[in-house]
Amino acid sequence: MKYNPNEIDAKWQKYWAENQTFAAKNNSETRGETELSEAKPKHYVLDMFPYPSGAGLHVGHPLGYIASDVYSRFKRHQGFNVLHPMGYDSFGLPAEQYAIQTGQRPEDTTHVNIDGGVDKEGKQIAGYRKQLDKIGFSFDWVREVRTSNPDYYKHTQWIFIQLFNSWYNKTTDKAEDVSTLVAVFEKEGNANVNAVSDDNIAVFSSSEWNAFSKDEQEKILLQYRLTYLAETEVNWCPGLGTVLANDEIVNGVSERGGFPVIRKKMTQWSMRISAYAERLLQGLNDIDWSESIKESQRNWIGKSVGAMVTFDVVPTTNNQQPETISVFTTRPDTIFGVTFMTLAPEHDLVAKITTPEQKAAVEAYIEKTAKRSERERMADVKTISGVFTGAYAEHPFTKEAIPVWIGDYVLAGYGTGAVMAVPCGDERDYAFANFFKGQNGMQEIKNIFANVDISEAAYGSKDNVEIANSDFLNGLDYKKGTQKAIEKLEEIGQGKGKTNYRLRDAVFSRQRYWGEPFPVYYVNGLPKMIDTQHLPIILPAVEKYLPTEDGLPPLGNAAVWAWDSIKCSVVSTQLINNVTIFPLELNTMPGWAGSSWYWMRYMDAHNENEFASKEALAYWENVDLYIGGSEHATGHLLYSRFWNKFLKDKGFAPTEEPFKKLINQGMILGTSALIYRVDQRPDVYVSKGIVEDFYNSEKNKEAAEKILNLTGTLTPTFSKIHVDVSFVNSSDELDIDKFRKWQPDFLHAKPIYEKDEKFIVVREVEKMSKSKYNVVTPDDICNEYGADTLRLYEMFLGPLEQAKPWNTAGISGVFGFLKKLWRLYFDDNGLIVNNDEPTKDNLKSLHKTIKKVAEDIENFSFNTSVSQFMICVNELSSQNCHSRAILEPLAILVSPYAPHIAEELWSQLGHTTSISEVAFPAFDEKHLVETNKEYPVSFNGKMRFTIELPLDLTAAQIEEIVMKDERTQKQLDGRTPNKVIIVPGKIINLVG
């Protein structure tokens, strides 16, 4: 009976789908109160939310999915009720851009990308779902979610409304309903409110609050709400017509499309994630994540302890309004070393304090800076640039006039957007002061450190510091100096101690179409939430996905996009009267909205009334194992933790942290194929060896002559271009005919071959990508070798968390292993499993494997498990083992990795139910205890034969047995040895 993987794969994938084999049951749904003690323990395994692109899956994508699937199947074998769901993060900019380029609806392309089919351009799309099913994942497809479905984003809208209706009480250290804040305002005003809020909120009494109009009250509450409207400095991409996050920008242009990005102020929805900075920081101590990911988050949150200092701006005219510059510093002990001040070019004060003489220079600098992203400005530590504003600030203690500059190394969103520059203690300030030395009032660098030479560089250390030239701080160290400086600043009312965080509030608006609509309409320019009973507010159809002619977001093109407050429905925009019918929000939510809570929806995916029931949330709690890419180290993981903590505060989420354990899988790299093209003759392509010979002096003449024949130059230069790896065989030979037919540009290609008429490509390991033509699809592997071969091979490539190159040549070895496994159970005539008692060697091979595989899966060392399977099958084959007592448990061991063949073996062994929940074999240590020892028997130090003896024999007993052995008698040939050396368990040596 032959191993036929395609037949077996199809059979069992159909069985799993029809029987919903992997549909997890919520404890509360399936068991009554009396049966709870018998309930299976839960285990929730989650893969990071995939975006379904039209390019489909390549073999790099399933790596994490296979790992999580092995673990999920193992946990089922261990008796856990496993939730292992899958869905799609199906809103987003890529689908919208594709729609703009091809004239298709993003909902249509998204649907085809997931379910497969032919798009409107005639392209055959495999479909994510079919590709995933082909690999045999044990996903609970009953709970599938798609963020672009109204029944999903209804709940995202609901969460947004909860955030809008909440504020962060620093006293209770949690989010609370805005009604509790209003109650305080009504009773005592806001003077004693300890909240995370906007800065510089005017103080008002209870009587003043009660006298405010409703609109005035709403404007004040917006300064406290956890999601709020504010004018924010953003990364605006005119080419994409949307705001981009920092991680969507590379080298000053958009990651998608390569469009220029500028800094611009826009009214945006923002989320007050900064309220949770300390909890996000402390929560890292309670979760099992890699230290590198934790450190990335710590750096992003950026906690620093210091002081807020206020500098008064020196008026330049008699009628100038008093202005102050607030600065956060971690080194208040260096305040007497302030030489100048620097504002971010975007700082609100710049326009107010810049003198007429400096106005042109300042405006030109601001325009230039707007073209650089924040990330670019942060990374560029070499370029020094800035402009003097013409204004001065007054030192709080010395009353000295300090010049105020602007510089793009200061960012508006970090701290206060202003720096008190102490060049003697900071390298960047030092470089700036030296660069502009002698210009526009830039003073000499002051040295406030005793016994420190700053003639060549700043002294940035906090250690071994003795403050000098600093009045009341003289002689103090860093700690005492900091404490004393804060005390004095508080005394004069120009500063106070403060803990600051780099983490900024998250912009939550996108000027695009394909995203969650906000459940918001506007009355007198102020946002109003639509009552939750009327959700979802469904994304309307539009003809154009670009911004409107007057610059409004794409939803400005919608004909039916207004809110009728009487009928409580969406109506035509032509009916807007701002009395009963009002405009709806035109922005949509960002890509991270739907992915910031999706793991909870899986717990109760079909609940129409709640995002998940209390019972389901209480049962599943949070994710036990989360597997995904390290590229989400900050953005997605921080936002998810923030939303989870908020929902915990509001009594919905049962735990503080969403993901107990996190593993980042490494990348599978592609092996690209590149060929040399002659720059002077773009139709001439040269084989690898010829180019290498050209640069080798001994062979140069011959190679040059070959090239000369086609190029007419003895000094050509070469460029490397990618070719499709499918045109290249395992010997790195390019099929020139396929290459010529590939693209019109190559139809008349003139190749220069090696001596043996072969054209050899250059191989390079790099990221697997469609643009590099090095993509290998899992479908091809599954079709040729079966899904189990793909699964085993991906796990065999190397440690899960490391990057590793894909090499198709290794696939055949894994396929050969599966055929060898099959032959333990079958020969050409059928099943050969018997009921023979297993031998000691059989049991030893099996239990070695049980122990190794169980340990490896728990430690996520999947590659060494595959090696152990190979060792075990080789040993059992050598032992001619066909015992059911060995082969039944072996099938279970293999099942997490190669479930299709395991199910077939289990079925052929006579079982009528799935192998997926059969108990994992128990390890018995006694089978690994060695009872015998194979001794080498030596004569005068030379080993002549071996003999196997029980380990518990004494030296005398061993000697008696050895001397009687006929092989010994033959070696001695009648002689009596002078000495017999025996060390039990080690050696036997006969001397003389």
UniProtKB/TrEMBL annotation:
<dbReference type="InterPro" id="IPR013155">
    <property type="entry name" value="M/V/L/I-tRNA-synth_anticd-bd"/>
</dbReference>
<dbReference type="InterPro" id="IPR002302">
    <property type="entry name" value="Leu-tRNA-ligase"/>
</dbReference>
<dbReference type="InterPro" id="IPR025709">
    <property type="entry name" value="Leu_tRNA-synth_edit"/>
</dbReference>
<dbReference type="InterPro" id="IPR001412">
    <property type="entry name" value="aa-tRNA-synth_I_CS"/>
</dbReference>
<dbReference type="InterPro" id="IPR009008">
    <property type="entry name" value="Val/Leu/Ile-tRNA-synth_edit"/>
</dbReference>
<keyword id="KW-0030">Aminoacyl-tRNA synthetase</keyword>
<keyword id="KW-0963">Cytoplasm</keyword>
<dbReference type="Pfam" id="PF08264">
    <property type="entry name" value="Anticodon_1"/>
</dbReference>
<feature type="domain" description="Leucyl-tRNA synthetase editing">
    <location>
        <begin position="298"/>
        <end position="490"/>
    </location>
</feature>
<keyword id="KW-0648">Protein biosynthesis</keyword>
<keyword id="KW-0067">ATP-binding</keyword>
<dbReference type="InterPro" id="IPR014729">
    <property type="entry name" value="Rossmann-like_a/b/a_fold"/>
</dbReference>
<keyword id="KW-0547">Nucleotide-binding</keyword>
<dbReference type="GO" id="GO:0016874">
    <property type="term" value="F:ligase activity"/>
</dbReference>
<feature type="domain" description="Methionyl/Valyl/Leucyl/Isoleucyl-tRNA synthetase anticodon-binding">
    <location>
        <begin position="843"/>
        <end position="954"/>
    </location>
</feature>
<keyword id="KW-0436">Ligase</keyword>
<feature type="short sequence motif" description="'KMSKS' region">
    <location>
        <begin position="767"/>
        <end position="771"/>
    </location>
</feature>
<dbReference type="Pfam" id="PF13603">
    <property type="entry name" value="tRNA-synt_1_2"/>
</dbReference>
<feature type="binding site">
    <location>
        <position position="770"/>
    </location>
    <ligand>
        <name>ATP</name>
    </ligand>
</feature>
<protein>
    <recommendedName>
        <fullName>Leucine--tRNA ligase</fullName>
        <ecNumber>6.1.1.4</ecNumber>
    </recommendedName>
</protein>
<dbReference type="InterPro" id="IPR002300">
    <property type="entry name" value="aa-tRNA-synth_Ia"/>
</dbReference>
<dbReference type="InterPro" id="IPR009080">
    <property type="entry name" value="tRNAsynth_Ia_anticodon-bd"/>
</dbReference>
<feature type="domain" description="Aminoacyl-tRNA synthetase class Ia">
    <location>
        <begin position="12"/>
        <end position="165"/>
    </location>
</feature>
<feature type="domain" description="Aminoacyl-tRNA synthetase class Ia">
    <location>
        <begin position="759"/>
        <end position="793"/>
    </location>
</feature>
<dbReference type="Pfam" id="PF00133">
    <property type="entry name" value="tRNA-synt_1"/>
</dbReference>
<comment type="similarity">
    <text>Belongs to the class-I aminoacyl-tRNA synthetase family.</text>
</comment>
